[in-house]
Amino acid sequence: MIRLGLRNLFQNKTRLIISVGGVALALLLILVLDAVVTGVQTQVTSFIDNSNADIIVSQENVRNLHMAYSAIPASFETRVRNVAGVASVTPIHYLTNLIEIGDVSNLAYVIGLPREVDAGGPWRIVAGNPLPADGEAIIDRGVAVNSGVGIGDTVKILGEEFKIAGLSDGTTTISGGSVAFIAEKDFVRTRKDTGSVSFLFVRVKSNTSSAVVAAQIEKQVDKATAQTRDQFAERERQVVNDMSTDIVTIMNLVGFLIGIAVMALTVYTATLARRAEYGVLKAVGARNLHLYGVVLAQAFVSVVLGFGVGLGITLLLVALVPQMDLPIALEVSGASLVKVASVSLVIAALSALLPIKQIAGLDPARVFRGK
Amino acid sequence: MSLALRNLVQDKTRFALSVGGVALAVMLTLLLNGFLAGMYAQITAYLENAPGSIVIAQDGVNNLLGATSLLPAGAAVAVKSEGAENVVPILSQFIILELHEKKQPAYLIGFDPKIGGGPWRMAAGREPRNEREVVFDRILAQRHNITLGETFEIMDRDFTVVGLSDGTSSWMTSFIFVRKVAAENLLRAPDASSFLLVTPPARFDDAAMLARLRNVARVQVLPKQQVMANDKQLFGKFFSAPIQLMVAIAFLVGTLIVGLVIYTATVERQREYGVLKAIGAKNGVLYRVVATQAVIAAGAGSLIGIAATYGAARLIMSVYPQFLVVVEPRAMFQSLVIGLGMALLAALFPARVIARLAPAEVFRK
């Protein structure tokens, strides 16, 4: 049954290429969209994942950083430091702003760092100093390269001029933005900050549970939310997820419908072209069920090949996009593969319905009449 | 033409599937572009309806939604002293709301109801009268069953919903409005302003006012239209790459569908094409027959796709009211051109079959 289906499928190479190509493109629609969302989820947590903080303390009910705003009294630093199990506290100033280099503006998370940094600083310096002194900035290497600036050059952040003192790697974020670090003193001066900080990045003592210390911080410090790094990163991913769920659903549906249309068309035309042969098989005693199996096998094999090609193109895009200077990062997740594989099976089953109907209605005697 | 049409519609199911496939591909293209156009309209809605024609931001900030802006103290006074007719200060910031376990980004605008800069169209209720009241976007409220009079937690403070605004929704983010002093408290930024919305007096045009305002130190002075364009560019930069990629995929899918149908129809009629060649028909004539079939299938698919897009857009907007799908005439024209492009490319598959066809072949079979 499968052998007959395969021979039927591979008999006309052009049709096979079109069919597999069509399914591959339809599945590619779903795979690429998922890869965009997963890529964004990874980008959006890069700062937190690499922050070296065990716990992040923020304004009450502020549970993430991207598109959020947090302001807590600077005095909270001492109160958090006094909680049992806390090893160190680094106050972090944060807001979304622009790095201006000449006429080009680049979106950036601007981080104001104190002189002593245990968490929240740049995690991979490729050139220059590891921390910014007053009047200095550490910016993303990619931003510097694309703008043609380097160590010692000047950039504008928060409307003020800063000398580039260091270049960091891995500090690109969502929407083509990056993370830029300046000294706390400069941040406070430009923002006219009145005794508040954005977050407290907390390190806990060894052999101490971050979750337990976070709960203690919430208990002992009013109007503050304390989360472990993993909880914070999860909330960050959730923002992207909740924003994209509806649009992903709609686009997946369109990709699914296109996949069905392409597959139905190819399996239908392949069956139509072999109508006489199916009639002969029926005339010599083949049961309808057997012929349905042949049609299903064709659809299944086409879809499996299409899935393979679609996945191959997606992986190629995953590798190529970082070299194309596009403000997106693609990443294929296991969940996406399972989803697309399931969708493929449904497409194969549904696309076989039309030709099955055709075979069911086929009169064996017709083939002998030459119709 | 007649031969092409008869060849094409000879198998109605196949014709319907091919037209349906092209229609879906065209619909996908139009919907994606419609999403982008709708998103642009939604993200610029506030400035479109806000007072004034000039925006003053913190030095280095050139858009409303991308970066946090904080003006230097005394900026409003300095702007007024340059002769501005009306100066509306707002304090704004993206925040994340927790609604039914879901994270919902919202753009918080703190405004002074006496001066302006708040919601421009109320669907229900009124503007906030004190620092514990908020006006919610109508669609955001509807999606999360938030009603007038309800108490709602924004960051670390409770607010009562006293009004629902119209035209302030977006799938990216929705606008919510509080009094400026309430925003100052929430953001712990007393007396702060993010932007000034400036109206020039009758005696100055925008250019003259812009020139005068450039004397104000440590601020960015931009025409409102420029700020709107910058917001579009910022969001477009992120969304246009994946959307263009998906449009390209849709185009290829459509081309393959038409190609497959015309190819199959041509292979099935190989004998007849051979006979035509044998009695003197040139390849050019037969190519035309094939191309005509492709144009008919793609044309019908494109037209149905355009009509289906309107239906799909309505359906999407009723199920997901936060989405705005704007199908522009230019996009429709583009999709027709895309359909024609699909047809011409698709005709290449069967044209290859015809070119290789030996006229004598049919008599040997």
Task: Write up what this structure looks like.
The complex is a heterodimer of chains A (371) and B (365). Chain A is of the alpha+beta class. Chain A has two domains: 2-44 and 238-369, no CATH class; 61-222, no CATH class. Chain A is 53% helix and 20% strand. Chain A is built from 13 helices and twelve strands. Chain A has helices spanning 2-11, 13-44, 46-49, 76-81, 141-147, 184-191, 210-220, 229-273, 275-283, 288-320, 334-351, 353-360, 364-369; strands at 55-59, 72-73, 86-101, 104-113, 125-128, 136-140, 154-157, 160-168, 178-183, 196-197, 199-204, 224-228. In chain A, the strands form two sheets. Chain A has a six-stranded mixed beta barrel with strand order 3-4-9-6-8-7. A two-stranded antiparallel sheet of chain A has the order 2-10. In chain A, strand 3 and strand 4 form a beta hairpin. In chain A, helix 2 packs across helix 10. The longest helix of chain A is centred in the C-terminal third of the chain and has 45 residues, at 229-273. The radius of gyration of chain A is 29 Å and the shape is elongated. Helices cover 53% and strands 18% of the residues of chain B. In chain B, strand 6 (151-154) and strand 7 form a beta hairpin. The radius of gyration of chain B is 29 Å and the shape is elongated. In chain B, strands 1, 2, 3, 4, 5, 6, 7, 8, 9 and 10 form a ten-stranded mixed beta sheet that branches. The mean pLDDT of chain B is 85. Chain B has two domains: 2-43 and 234-364, no CATH class; 47-224, no CATH class. Chain B has helices spanning 2-9, 12-43, 45-49, 75-81, 138-143, 180-186, 206-213, 224-268, 270-278, 283-319, 329-346, 348-356, 361-364; strands at 54-58, 86-99, 102-111, 122-125, 133-137, 151-154, 157-165, 174-179, 195-199, 219-223. The longest helix of chain B has 45 residues, at 224-268.
